Amino acid sequence: xxxxxxxxxxxxxxxxxAFIGATHMKSDAPLLxxxxxxxxxxxSLALLRIVWRVEGGREFLLWSLAALLLLGGxxxxxxxxxxxxxxxxxxMALVVIPFYQWLGTGIFALILYFVKKEWKDRREKDxxxxxxxxxxx
Length: 137
Description:
elongated; mainly alpha
């Protein structure tokens, strides 16, 4: 239930990002505008794929929270730049925000790699210590 809810929420963020990008595509170069929209959606789709493929447990929870933080922050920044504080340079948000989302995803993946390695090492130490106590008894 919780996993479906989190995945659905991430999917809603992706759809909202696509809607915001598509409604502001008033360009003489529609191919370029679609490329910018694709660039804006790629981090969202990549995070959705990661969350979909991760098994349950701590790793799923961490990836889900990271996805919600990165995608929710990106969506808020898009809403802020297009609706709350519109400016002549608001369209640059479709270029800059996905870059920061990719950067955040990479940093989080690196952190999670080392955390998983620590979890694995700690689990092996606990198994060895528990196994030695059983043998002594």
